[in-house]
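Posting for a labmate who doesn't have an account.
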Amino acid sequence: MPWLLYLFAVAAGAISTALGGSNATLSKTLAQPITAGLAVQLVTILALVGVGLVHGGMGWPGGGKLAATPWWAWLGGFGGAIILLAQLTVAQRIGAAPYLAITVTAGIVVSVLLDHLGWLGFEQVRAQWGRIAGAALMVGGVVLVARN
């Protein structure tokens, strides 16, 4: 069932497009980006608790596992806050297509680098010409999408 993983990734990508608009609208309506961000995170926590309760995966790891976790693995929350703040403040100002094109392309470029270096737990995969050309085409696509 690996195709389900791809389907889930497609759904996440599609939803991420809508989140930029919905989160920015919440921020604009409340006139408080930080308050809107906290509201979004509260809903996220409630959703994760609900899924965890249904799925049964709500255990807390022991001290040994916590101590064995690399320091950088705990930075996901900061990254999530940056992404959320960008959605709250940038997405509606520049438009859905440029916003998503920029964020996805930045993700592709950085992912090629992370794979190439084998950083942050990713298996090392050398950046061959196809990956580099694909990332460069994405950058070109951003230019085309972001032009008015």
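Reply:
Got it, the structure tokens are right above this. Helices lie at 2-30, 33-55, 63-68, 76-89, 91-94, 96-117, 129-146.
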